[in-house]
Write a structure and sequence with these properties.
heterodimer; A: about 725 residues; mainly alpha; 5 helical Cullin repeat like; 3-stranded mixed β-sheet; 3-stranded antiparallel β-sheet; 9 strands; about 65% helix; elongated; B: about 250 residues; Helicase, Ruva Protein, domain 3; Recoverin, domain 1; 3 domains; two-stranded antiparallel sheet; 13 helices; 2 strands; about 0% strand; isopeptide bond (chain A)
């Protein structure tokens, strides 16, 4: 060691590893070979001999040492090669085994893919994302898709096989649904696009042509009901098919194919099918068929509206025939009953078969409204029906029954456009019922009034209620009269007076009539009594509306009690002082108007069993040259004989014209009042608006005629309530 | 300008003017307006007008007295007849209607003093001869749309019976025939026939006035007749009548 000098510094630099520690390329190749072998083994079902841990580590190392790409490409190539082999084996499968082979290989592939993915998980998580390559599982599926499913040999064969199986099942064969399930699930797993393009779309097309053909065949040979049964069955089948082995998303598509081919395309032919179409079903109350039709047609666009339209036009046609058929119109009560029956029938159909569908209910209502108003006697007839029911029809019925019937009548009433005509007739008929004491139940009468009031308001029924009040008051008056005047009256005829307030009761002219003296006396006593307690009032005897009970003794001493009208009583009493009288003598004595007198004599002399008078000559009609005799030889099994009651009847033509005229006259002031009301608030309004406003205001009572409205406007202009605008003729102005 | 809308001072002026000149209210207003409400200027204006003068007013009075009834202050049928004679016109001549319109006559075949004198003044004549000369120009007034309408509408009130609201059918038809001889309406005969056959009642004012509109705006083939046009119902029925009888084609 030489001594001598200062110590030298030593600089130590620590530097990074400069030389690369490379995995021996041969090592990479070797590692890959191991993995490649493993993949093959897996596919050969020899996975049990492999060590997961070792394989995983190998893959891991490869990726770590930047051999990810080699690994990935290797995987891809190996799998591709493998699948090509598999493809060959599938193609080789014969007949029915084709699908099974495909399915089996698919199962294998999935299992293999799972294992491979596990082994290569590190690569999947690191190399794959960074290099933007398809993950292993997806890669496996894509490769399957590309090399198996889309392989030219397999692709069409697969589709054809599937479709063929489905067709066979449709034709009644049993097929392997589990296998089908598996295959379709495979397609779904490969991606919805694969399922749709490679199966579903062609499936739908084939189904469409299948059902198109089948429906054509059925419709040639089946009636409507059976056809619909078949269609329903097919529809259910398809839904079941989907649930068993197709993807749920296909259900809506296939059902709409069936709906279109089997129902929508034949809609009109089915509905209008002769002898079995909708109309026939309605006529025969085929609830089940109708329900099926409704359910099926509901599924297709315009299905229900087609049904509705056909039903509506059928109802309108039938209804129209009903109301214009002269035969039917002979008996008003029958007529209305028929209408009610029709309504009931169709109500039931709508409720049982159409699920109470409101649109159908509305169609029914509008049809009824249409044809009921085609016959302008409908209001009269409906009133006569109610009259019949209240007079005798409801005898013995329970309270609920009464309500039910009256409610049904109210339904018809609602359809009437001319409610004011109904009111007029109802009043007339009610008057007759009350005065002849022929009403079955006071409660029923009142119930009807309440219903009318609810429907139309207080004004409609105030007069009717007045009539009831009069009846009650009259009863009280009579009681009081007899209590006070008993001795004065003594043995005279018993009087029962109904005092009617003029405004409430239907206006009747009171023609002259000479009452027999006995009657006159007691009537005058009553008049004096009444005017004593009610000064300032005027009483007029309505001799055309009264009745009388007379005791009569005939030739052999038979006694009968005759129930007759007042006119008839006047005539009969004449025979107390004469055995025979000519027509002219009777006319002179009683002063009854000719037409009424003739009717009266006819019922006394020409009706078998009621001929208390004998007529010479014995003809059927009354002529002014006839002579009448008291019929000594009259016999009857009954002690009390009813001859002629004032019953409500269908009006004759001239009477009808008169009523109609009165209604028209009543309407004029109502229209004018409406016009004035409207113009008062609007001040200035054009013609068409006035017409529509007036119609709207009055529609609860009747439908005003636009021509009548125009005339009323002109009348109001004449009376200076309104004026026309100087420039615009269509505009009217209210003159204060 | 209605007299009662004037102020008190103006009204007095008008009264004064009328008293002094004997002119009608209309003329008085005209003169005063022209002179900006200065009485002096108004007098100048009045006397400078060749047509109107005090002498004229007297002449008009004389004319009136010639035709008026002996025991009433009105010209009635006889007087009118005489007047027509003097004018060399038929009493049915439509020019009489025009003259009545100028006079604002209230009733057919009757003229009050005011109506007669005022009317002649507004026509601008003061003698029978001058009136006779004016006849052609009066007739010509019917050719003017505006005046024709006024005359037509005037006719309704004028031709009415006293105290009636509507016009009797006979009179109405007569008037229509007279008026529409001047203004040709091809459907006139059908209209009159229709009324006699189907209507047979009086004619309301509304129908009267609206008919002129109908004549003016709807062509005889009814091609532009609008059912929604709010025509009086009688005219609607007339259209129906024409179509029913094949006089016109339905659209």
């Amino acid at each position: 060691m030489s001594g001598g000098g200062p110590p030298r510094k030593r600089n130590f630099k620590i530097e990074a590893f400069k030389h690369r520690v490379e995995l021996d390329p041969k090592y990479a190749e070797r590692t890959w070979k191991v993995l490649e072998h493993a993949i093959h083994e897996i596919y050969n079902h020899n996975a049990s001999g492999l060590s997961f841990e070792e394989l995983y580590r190998s893959a891991y190392n490869m990726v770590l040492h930047k051999y990810g790409e080699k690994l990935y490409d290797g995987l891809k190539n190996t799998m591709t090669w493998r699948l090509k082999e598999i493809s060959k084996s599938i193609e080789a499968a014969q007949g029915g085994l084709f699908l099974e082979e495909l399915n089996a290989k698919w199962m294998d592939h999935n299992k293999a893919l799972q294992m491979i993915r596990d082994i290569l998980m590190y690569m999947d998580r690191t190399y794959v994302p960074t290099s933007h390559r398809t993950p292993v599982h997806e890669l496996g599926l894509n490769l399957w898709r590309d090399h198996i499913i889309h392989s030219p040999m397999i692709h069409s064969r697969l589709l054809d096989t599937l479709l063929d199986l489905i067709h066979r099942e449709r034709m009644g064969e049993v097929i392997n649904r589990g296998l089908m399930r598996s295959i379709t699930k495979m397609l779904m797993d490969l991606g919805p696009a694969v399922y749709q393009d490679d199966f579903e779309k062609p499936f739908l097309e084939v189904s469409a042509s299948f059902y198109s053909g089948e429906s054509q065949e059925f419709i040639e040979c089946c009636d409507c009901g059976n056809y619909l049964k078949k269609a329903e069955r097919r529809l259910n089948e398809e839904m079941e098919r989907v649930s068993h082995y197709l993807d749920a998303g296909s259900e809506a598509k296939i059902t709409s194919v069936v709906e279109k081919e089997m129902i929508a395309n034949h809609m009109h032919r089915l509905v209008h099918m002769e002898n079995s179409g909708l109309v026939n079903m309605l006529i025969d109350d085929k609830y089940e068929d109708l329900g099926r039709m409704y359910a099926l047609f509901r599924r297709v666009p315009d299905g229900l509206s087609t049904l509705r339209d056909v039903m509506t036009s059928y109802l309108r046609e039938t209804g129209k025939q009903l109301v214009t058929d002269p035969e039917r119109l002979k008996d008003p009560v029958e007529f209305v009953q028929r209408l009610l029956n029709e309504k009931d029938k169709h109500d039931k159909i709508i409720s049982v078969a159409f699920g109470n569908d409101k649109t159908f209910q509305n169609a029914l209502n509008s049809s009824f409204e249409y044809f009921i108003n085609l016959n302008n006697r409908s209001p009269e007839f409906i009133s006569l029906y109610v009259d019949d029911k209240l007079r005798k029809g409801l005898k013995g019925a329970t309270e609920e029954d009464v309500e039910v019937i009256l409610d049904k009548v109210m339904m018809l009433f609602r359809y009437l456009q001319e409610k004011d005509v109904f009111e007029k007739y109802y009043k007339q008929h009610l008057a007759k019922r009350l005065l002849s004491g022929k009403t079955v139940s006071d409660d029923a009468e009142r119930s009807m009034i309440v219903k009318l009031k609810t429907e139309c308001g207080y004004q409609f029924t105030s007069k009717l209620e007045g009539m009831f009040t009069d009846m009650k008051t009259s009863q009280d008056t009579m009681q009081d009269f007899y209590a006070k005047k008993a001795e004065e009256l003594g043995d005279g005829p018993t009087l029962d007076v109904h005092i009617l307030t003029t405004g409430s009761w239907p206006t009747q002219p009171s023609p002259p009539c000479n009452l027999p003296p006995e009657i006159l006396t007691v009537c005058e006593k009553f008049r004096a009594y009444y005017l004593g307690t009610h000064s300032g009032r005027r009483l007029t005897w309505q001799t055309n509306m009264g009745t009388a009970d007379i005791k009569a003794t005939f030739g052999k001493g038979q006694k009968h009690e005759l129930n007759v009208s007042t006119y008839q009583m006047c005539v009969l009493m004449l025979f107390n002082s004469a055995d025979g009288l000519t027509y002219k003598e009777i006319e002179q004595a009683t002063e009854i108007p000719a037409s009424d007198l003739k009717r009266c004599l006819q019922s006394l002399a020409c009706v078998k069993g009621k001929n208390v008078l004998r007529k010479e000559p014995m003809s059927k009609d009354i002529s002014e040259d006839d002579t009448f005799y008291f019929n000594d030889k009259f016999t009857s099994k009954l002690v009390k004989v009813k001859i002629g009651t004032v019953v409500a009847q269908k009006e004759s033509e001239p009477e009808k014209q008169e009523t109609r005229q009165r209604v028209e006259e009543d309407r004029k002031p109502q229209i004018e009042a409406a016009i004035v009301r409207i113009m008062k608030s609007r001040r200035v309004l054009d013609h068409n608006s006035i017409v529509s406003e007036v119609t709207k205001q009055l529609q609860a009572r009747f439908l005003p005629n636009p021509v009548v409205i125009k005339k009323r406007i002109e009348s109001l202009i004449e009376r200076e309530f309104l004026e026309r605008d100087k420039v615009d003729r269509k505009l009217y102005r209210y003159l204060a | 300008m209605l007299i009662y809308k004037l102020g008190k001072g103006s009204r007095e002026k008008v009264q004064q003017f009328m008293t002094i000149t004997g002119a009608s209210e209309k003329v008085a207003l005209q003169a005063l307006k022209a002179s900006d409400w200065h009485l002096e200027g108004a007098f100048d204006f009045f006397y400078s007008q060749p047509q109107i003068s005090a002498a004229n007013t007297r002449r008009l009075e004389e004319m009136y007295n010639k035709y008026k009834e002996p025991d009433a202050d009105m010209i009635m049928v006889e007087g009118v007849s005489q007047l027509c004679n003097d004018l060399h016109v038929d009493p049915q001549d439509i020019v009489m209607l025009v003259i009545s319109w100028h006079m604002k006559a209230a009733t057919m075949c009757e003229f009050t003093r005011q109506e007669f004198i005022g009317g002649l003044q507004s026509i601008g004549v003061d003698s029978i001869e001058k009136l006779r000369e004016k006849l052609p120009s009066l007739r010509a007034e019917l050719k003017d749309d505006h005046k024709f309408r006024e005359i037509y509408n005037f006719t309704f009130n004028w031709a009415r019976e006293k105290g009636q609201k509507s016009l009797s059918l006979e009179t109405a038809i007569g008037m229509w025939q007279l008026l529409f001889a001047e203004r040709q309406w091809p459907l006139l005969d059908h209209w009159c026939e229709f009324l006699q056959v189907r209507h047979n009642k009086t004619i309301s004012r509304d129908t009267w006035t609206q008919l002129l509109e109908f004549v003016k705006s709807i062509d005889p083939q009814l091609s532009n007749y609008d059912e929604e046009g709010a025509w009086p119902y009688l005219i609607d029925e007339f259209v129906e009548y024409l179509i029913e009888n094949g006089f016109v084609q339905r659209k």
